[in-house]
């Protein structure tokens, strides 16, 4: 997978990144676009998926999505979403990662983002800039938790991932998928590691977790989500979800309800 960064925008160009807050319906989709500054997108309630040429990042309410200047990206929202958009000026973007990513949201970071995206006047001169500095500091100290699903460029590997995107619950082995793609299991296994940086099993697990997050956000039960996304039983689904997301599906849904009530 190409690791080169897209060209940096001209810092003197007009700032085209929106800031603010609003509620979006389940399934709302923003087509790929670019910004002249950096952007943080936080779903205070609901779940957000951000897609770039490097793959898809998913951010439930305990994570925030970061997109640097110049990266083409699109968004899709799951569940009724309280979305918060925060512009990061170009001169501050160098303090953050130079590629799209997702970070854990600390209580302080959450409150700072909510305050900066609220529709209210600045209480004291410079207050907003100081609060933005808090956001940068919190992100600099936060652990990247990407929930990143990379996408391949190799045609054989793309044939396999396309089949799984179409049906994440498909139980086929890599050997069976390879027959459709015209490649051996050994070749495909090597491509998953060299091009996507993970095993076939790990990639399919994250794909299924992405779909599970969308279903859970939309109110599907844990058991039904497990079956729909390809797990043989709820217990194995709960273990996988907890390992990838950092909380159980039940806790995730409870936090969604609490976030929606607080918002």
TrEMBL record:
Gene Ontology molecular-function annotations: DNA-binding transcription factor activity; sequence-specific DNA binding
Record-given protein name: HTH-type transcriptional regulator RipA
Pfam families: AraC_binding (PF02311), HTH_18 (PF12833)
InterPro entries the record matches: AraC-bd, Homeodomain-like_sf, HTH_AraC, RmlC-like_jellyroll, RmlC_Cupin_sf
KW tRNA-binding (keyword) present: no
PROSITE patterns: HTH_ARAC_FAMILY_2
Superkingdom of the source species: Bacteria
SMART domains found in the cross-reference section: HTH_ARAC
Repressor is among the record's keywords: yes
Source species of the chain: Streptomyces minutiscleroticus
Residues of the HTH araC/xylS-type domain: 158-255
Keywords, in A-Z order: DNA-binding, Repressor, Transcription, Transcription regulation
């Amino acid at each position: 997978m190409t690791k080169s960064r897209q060209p940096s925008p001209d810092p003197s160009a007009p700032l085209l990144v929106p800031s603010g807050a609003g509620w979006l319906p389940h399934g709302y989709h923003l087509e790929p676009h670019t910004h002249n500054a950096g952007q943080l997108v936080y779903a205070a309630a609901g779940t957000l998926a951000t897609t770039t040429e490097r793959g898809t990042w998913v951010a439930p309410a305990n994570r925030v999505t970061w997109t640097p200047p110049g990266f083409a990206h699109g968004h899709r929202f799951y569940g009724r979403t309280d979305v918060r958009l925060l512009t990061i000026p170009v001169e501050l973007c160098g303090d953050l990662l130079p590629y799209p990513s997702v970070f854990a949201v600390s209580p302080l970071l959450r409150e700072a983002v909510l305050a900066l995206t609220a529709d209210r006047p600045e209480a004291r001169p410079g207050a907003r800039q100081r609060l933005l500095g808090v956001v940068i500091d919190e992100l600099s100290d936060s652990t990247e938790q990407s929930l990143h699903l990379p996408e391949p460029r190799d045609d054989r590997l793309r044939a396999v991932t396309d089949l799984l995107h179409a049906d994440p619950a498909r139980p086929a082995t890599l050997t069976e998928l390879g027959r459709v793609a015209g490649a051996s299991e050994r070749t495909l296994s090597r491509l998953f590691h060299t091009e996507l940086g993970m095993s076939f099993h790990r990639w399919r697990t994250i794909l299924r977790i992405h779909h599970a997050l969308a279903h859970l956000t939309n109110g599907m039960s844990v058991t039904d989500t497990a079956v729909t996304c390809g797990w043989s039983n709820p217990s194995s689904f709960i273990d996988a979800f907890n390992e990838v997301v950092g909380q159980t599906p039940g806790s995730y849904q409870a936090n969604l309800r609490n976030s929606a009530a607080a918002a």
